[in-house]
Amino acid sequence: MSAIAILNIALRLTIWFLLTADFGLANIIIGVSIALLLPRSHTSPEKLRDWLRVLWEIIVAIPQAYIEAFQIMLRPHNEEEIVRQRVPPRRTPGLVFLDIFLITFTPKTIVTKYDKQGWYEVHKVKRRGRDREIANNK
Phi and psi for 113 in degrees, rounded to 5? Predict the structure, then answer.
């Protein structure tokens, strides 16, 4: 069994346990069965590198999420914008899910739409620009 297949099964099991919140023997058997029965795609070394890169980005995003949460609490973030972000090429559905999870994990951003042509629509909150803030206070 390849490393990507193991990562896919682990991701499926993680999602299953997050959805069910049950670690009983019957639920574990059901989760493993579903993870193994769901269809899989062809794997390649590039996909493994993509998986490892995304997993590293998730590890880095955890402290970033705490930093952003404190920034939002300490300073108002009154500006909003919606930007389109390009999906990296040749993404498997599992990697697309992890990309969306990673973007949505941080408090200042959330994916509002995934376009099948290869774009994420991301809603961001940010602090108002210093110049506009001064002009608005006058």
Answer: -160, 140
